[in-house]
Write a structure and sequence with these properties.
Layout (H helix, E strand, L loop, with lengths): L3 H14 L23 E5 H4 L7 H5 L6 E2 L15 E2 L12 E4 L2 E2 L18 E8 L13 E7 L2 H4 L2 E8 L4 E7 L2 E2 L2 E12 L19 E13 L4 E15 L6 E16 L3 E18 L6 E7 L2 E11 L6 E21 L6 E24 L2 E22 L5 E6 L3 E15 L4 E12 L3 H5 L2 E3 L2 E4 L7 E12 L5 E13 L2 E7 L2 E6 L2 E14 L3 E15 L18 E12 L2 E10 L2 E2 L7 E2 L2 E13 L2 E8 L7 E5 L2 E4 L4 E8 L2
Parallel strand pairs: 4-7, 25-29
Antiparallel strand pairs: 1-6, 2-3, 4-5, 6-7, 8-9, 8-40, 9-11, 10-11, 11-12, 12-13, 13-14, 14-15, 15-16, 15-17, 16-18, 17-18, 18-19, 19-20, 20-21, 20-22, 22-23, 23-26, 24-25, 26-27, 27-30, 28-29, 30-31, 31-32, 32-33, 33-36, 34-35, 36-37, 37-40, 38-39
Length: about 650
Amino acid sequence: MLNPAYAIAQDDADAESEQPAPIVVTGEGLADTPGSPAYATREIPREQILTASSGRIEDVLLGVAGFQKYRRSDSRSSNPSAQGATLRSLGGNATSRALVLLDGVPMADPFFGYIPFNAIVPERLERITVTRGGGSGPFGAGALTGTIELETANAATLGPVSGRALVNDRGATELSATLAPQLGSGFAVVSGRWDRGQGFWTTPLDQRVDASARAAYDNWSIGARGVMPAGAQTEVQARMLVWRDDRTLRFDGADSSSEGQDASLRLVHRGEWAVDALAYVQVRNFSNIVISSSRFTPVLDQYNTPSTGIGGKLELRPPQLAGHQLRFGADYRRASGTMMENAISAFSGDITARRRAGGANEDLGLFAEDDWTLGALVLTGGLRADRTTITGGYYRSADPTGAVTIDETFEDRTDWTVTWRGGALFRASEALALRAAAYRGIRLPTLNELYRPFVVFPVETEANAQLENEELLGFEVGADLTPAPGVRLSLTAFDNRIDGAIANVTLAENLRQRRNLPAIDAQGIEADANVDLGAFGLAGSVTYTDAVVDGAGEAADLDGFRPAQTPRLAASATLWWQPHDATRLSATLRHIGKQYEDDRESEPLPAATTLDAYAEVRLAGRLSFVLRGENLFDETIITRNSGGSIDLGVPRTIWAGLNWGL
């Protein structure tokens, strides 16, 4: 018979053991599958994200060699519509060939396909995962050259209150603040950032005129995110992002603006049957004024380009069975938009034509993947079937009185395409993993490529409503070596071919048109190094890409040329020292090889090597002093060369300020 004291203790122990486990929400999606490492990946941790010398997300991504924007200029000194992202230095025409996801949501603009880098604030992020090579799985039709996954930090990482205030040597300011309270078993994050400045001279001194202007910018973004439990293994994530970005480029009055209001709702269940369900809506707009480079008066007013993107996905993962981890589901994206612009006489200032163009694109994808673990060997493979539609396309032009002079409507198109990817990962030892992969992917042309002509005076680029999908076929082999704790070395050789690559093809001296090239062939080698030895660390990346146009027919005269805006060599190395939590010093050396502005290799962009630096020293408590330096060598970076008319990238720039809690 139990004595009373023992019985009471036992009852208390039983009661404690029966207490439900605490609910923990992460704000993340489902974990990577066992086969994910079979593809060439690079992870950027939060510590590296926060120490970018410019405070811009595109500079963080430049630490991955092979990542490329359409132009070398960053999101303070380029036209927003030129902010396409690609991987493996495969160039493009300002539309993203890489899939960029923020908490699982595609970020590409519904009309243009560019990435709103100014709205993606580095200090909000936990990590970035870059996977090179064509994609499958959710939204895989957008991952022609790879996927860039951005994950927002949770409240535990951000702390209840954090912020930053900096000023640079030209009087520009950068202000940000974040509130991240814990709410019961969940949390909320509300953050804002405002950047503004008169900018620097993008026009060389010997080409400036009275109408020349600095690259002024004024942009802000506000993000809100809530994560709450909906059961022991289920959480609901809601996110909102609102931003506006105003810029001036080259001449007084050459103003552009972009804005967006995004919202998403996500349900993640991590039970025996795992579920990731997502729905999102994007409302965007863009405007742009083109100034004549000879008379310095407006010649085009693209005053309104409203667009809407809606989409979602449902992904299911059943329990593992005999070493198999399955995932299958469906995703959907729809983009619609309208371009509204007025052509203006450079002599009289009168409107000469009123134009509208637009349409809608849709992609319904069905996907299935399987990772099969056989001891040290993991085999992975996946299939996608995409139903793509291009509908409602039109181009209309009217004279100043409203009389229609051009009224074109374009035939609706629908197609089914099956793509795939597969790979193998063999862990030869605890220190060495060997991998190989092959893949085929597609990208649907954007509304911008199909219907919107544009002018970077005096060069006019025509749209092309007959553009076909881009299709990529790729192969790669690689090895990952971890010879010691904190040390990871990676080497990948790849061979990629883009059939029907969309490019701006030169037709005459000042006339180009978007066209499908027969193909772009690219072979190259990528190497990555990450070394963390406690107080010291190194993150490096280098890629050499031999990319050429495979020309035939109308593009026969381009055969053998390197694609526009594509360097052969790109490299980045960051060395950091953190003797304790209160101090961090880092320096980044970056090189980008020679590129060409045009498809005929007649307008070179010389190679450039830059040095950036970051220093942070704790003053008291959570308060620290921050000093950042961009392009400390003051290297001349040519970002555009149109018939000898030059634009320059960021000169030497010094930032100083205070940081609280980041």
